[in-house]
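One record is given unchanged without comment:
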Amino acid sequence: MRHAWRLSEAMGAWLDRTTRLRRGEVDPETLRTVPSWGLSLLFHAFLILLLALVIHIRRGAEPPGREFGAVDTQLGDTTSLVTANRSGDPFTDQDSADPPSLGLPTMEAIPQLAGQPEIAALGRFAPSLASPSHDKTSPLDRASIRTLVELPDLASTLTAPFSGRQGPSKARLIRREGGTAESEKSVEDGLEWLARHQRPDGAWSLNFQDQCQGTGCLGQARISSDTAATALALLPFLGAGFTHTVKSRHQATVRKGVEWLLAHEQPNGDLFVGPPGMAYLYSHAIGTMALCEAYGLSQDPKLKVPAQLAVKFIIASQDPSGGGWRYTPGQAGDVSVFGWNIFALRSANMAGIKPPKKVLKLCSRFLDQTAADRSRTTYSYLAGTLRATPVMTAEALVGRQLLGWPRDFPALVKGASIIARDLESSEQRNIYYWYYATQLLHNMKNKDWEKWNKRIREGLIASQVHDDSCSRGSWDPSSPVPDRWSESGGRLFLTSLSLLTLEVYYRYLPMYRDYDDQQANPDRGMLDDSEKKLGAEPAAKPAGDADAD
């Protein structure tokens, strides 16, 4: 007690001398009497007080954490599909400093696209494609022409991001990532249904009943867009590795669908065919994905410029201030339409068409604006609404993964955990949500993925139509219970998204390499030595930069 009293007296005397010094009453030499421990104590006390003040201010400004109740219904009749993942090769033993993404690092650094190693090309039997018919105009013509740059020819190789869709790589990924023989049989049956309902001109319709055989397939869609329907039908074929240039039972189906898209592309790259309305930029983004993936898989030079033009149209349609996309070019964005467009850019990047850095920065800005909390864990449909929904959160977090958030980024880990809990407790049928969430959790590859994969895989297999009717292989939008999007997209929409969900194991190579697992189990899922060498080759020269700057 005596020591504490003496310490108090000494500090008081020192503070008194310091105060008199400020008033000019004490010679500076007095400071030599200041004990060093006293100066240190005063300095650290000041820092602690300052830190406490900052924490108090931040806690007062941050909105409370958000959990989810019912899914927000403000999306109306929108139809959206997110495809996820990106390029990193899980089979090579070469480490890479590139981010597992389109290239925007976590903390807003300058984006750089990830390297893409090559594998040898498959044999080709390239049929002639119908020449595009450019007989339409659009107000974006001038902007698109101004940003157009000629692309060099690609080498005759298949880039690694698509390599999991064919051959031994596909078989290994199915086994390693959680697929089964039954899930692949389900994919085959679904593709057969889509092939049976293609129109003679190569297109598909969301209301496809004119192509039904027998009693027909129930389920009308309110949305009308042949562009969206055709691209939605093509994507599962491409996801399963079928192209228009390699002989297979589905070659003609894919070829006719690609020809239809080319024939209806406008000179500025606009792919939309349908009545005016909210389906416009949804449809164009889905069509761009199909063109870019057909190009990336086949590297058919006839698809090079059409794919590039479609990407240019997306770039020209981005909201120049907010960074999003919505129903019409330049409109302030929403997360639902944004998802289609960011993944169309990802498909372009995989095919060698490099998105501009400024576009990726704007994408990151848009997601910041739609975050419903300061930690950027949950997301709203529109910027500024602060109403988090599970669907928009799942879609936005996959976008964050594509833009560079690492698997252990705290907001990503917490957001994915929230989605996993919501999916576990939700009894609503919602393929739109399931597809986003499946991609998100597959990328995370944790215990939540193992539980969710079994549930969604077995649920989709069981709910597919297995009888001998015309609807065999499809998913009924109203049975066993109505899907959330049954009236908007109908049977073709649900069937395409269900197939893409069951293709999650190989459609894109795993986003994040699990180095610890590979070191513990070096032979698990690895290619043989010759394939590993091919996978580790330097990336092919890109097809071109979509940026005009």
Notes: The CA atoms of residues 30 and 300 lie 85 Å apart.
